[in-house]
Design goal:
327 residues, mainly alpha, Rossmann fold, three-stranded parallel sheet, 13 helices, Nicotinate-nucleotide-dimethylbenzimidazolephosphoribosyltransferase, Nict_dMeBzImd_PRibTrfase_sf, nicotinate-nucleotide-dimethylbenzimidazole phosphoribosyltransferase activity
């Protein structure tokens, strides 16, 4: 299967981490000391090198369940927002400029007529009644995620921020996480882009029915992802796992991205040691995934915009922590 690996992913450099922690002992830097030591360990050197080529990669896709009318946003919002980001607009670009990062949008499965090396499908199946993708689409999504990670790392990125974009993606992430953690649908449902009582009921029903469809597949994680995930979530998972295997630090954003990191850790053990939690959102699935990964977010601003925006708000802390230990 696409994620099979002979050995777990190697951990960041323990000697560099120890050197960083010892050098900053008694500094009073608190968690910034630990954060700087994580950067040093990922780089395999102390003092750490300043982070100068941070890159946001937004994986965009549409989801069949969005047509259930469970979001305050129309399904066509995803493609319009992706186009805006590509033109340099939107919160993610503002925050990226402020934090000294750059942005790339990867159109994995938006619901429009387009094709290219990064495309997997036009949207995905409605996971409450049908499979999200075919086996061939699943494998292509994995390949796209890995290839994009390789492209960014080969071009010099020293820290990667995976982002998500797509109406319905928090529902998909919640369903997948609920299936793996055996969390009740009512406990994993979050606000997404906004909920009324009626929309909440629809969302719970979609997640319940999706989880029921994979109730016997606990020992087949890739099948669970194929049936009730989405191409963009699979690509995100492969992107994070490949980044870790290439010894590149990853700053996580909200629920879909953190659920992807949870999946990457399950399929490629050791991935989580290369990840740092940028922020905490109001999504229950986000907190559940963070706890499973044993990660503590750097900030909690209730940002639920996706696209890597919340992680970008935390990026200056990561940069400052590295430079403090290098000073």
């Amino acid at each position: 299967m696409p994620f099979d690996s002979a050995e777990p992913i190697a951990a960041p450099d323990a000697q560099a981490r120890a050197g960083a922690l010892a050098a900053a002992a008694g500094s009073g830097l608190g968690r910034l000391r630990d954060l700087g030591a994580w950067v040093a360990a990922c780089q395999g050197t102390f003092p750490p090198v300043p982070l100068e080529r941070c890159r946001v990669v937004v994986f965009a896709g549409d989801h069949g369940v969005a047509k259930r009318g469970m979001s305050t946003l129309p399904p066509e919002h995803s493609a319009a927002r992706a186009a805006d980001i590509g033109r340099g607009a939107g919160a993610v670009n503002v925050l990226a400029r402020a934090a000294g990062a750059s942005v790339r949008v990867v159109d994995v499965s938006l619901d429009h007529e387009a094709w290219g090396d990064e495309r997997v499908s036009r949207a995905s199946g409605a996971i409450d009644v049908e499979d999200a993708m075919t086996p061939e689409q699943f494998e292509r999504a994995v390949e796209v995620g890995r290839r994009v990670a390789d492209q960014e790392i080969d071009s010099g990125a020293d820290l990667l921020i995976p982002g998500d974009l797509g109406v319905g993606n928090t529902t998909v992430a919640a369903a997948v996480l609920g299936a793996f953690t055996r969390t009740e649908p009512v406990a994993v449902v979050g606000p997404g882009s906004g909920l009324t009582d009626e929309l909440w009921k629809i969302k719970v029903e979609v997640i319940r029915d999706a989880m029921f469809r994979v109730r016997t597949l606990g020992a087949e994680p890739e099948e669970v992802m194929r049936k009730i995930g989405s191409p963009d979530l699979v690509a995100l998972t492969a992107f994070i796992a490949q980044s870790a295997s290439r010894r590149t630090p990853v700053l996580l954003d909200g629920a879909p991205v953190t659920v992807a990191a949870f999946l990457a850790e399950r399929l490629s053990p050791g991935t989580k040691h290369w990840c740092q939690a940028g922020q905490l959102t109001p999504e229950p699935a986000h907190l559940i995934a963070l706890q499973a990964l044993e990660l503590t977010p750097l900030i909690a601003l209730d940002m639920n915009a996706g696209q890597g925006a919340g992680a970008l708000a935390a990026l200056p802390l990561v940069k400052a922590a590295a430079e403090l230990l290098a000073d």
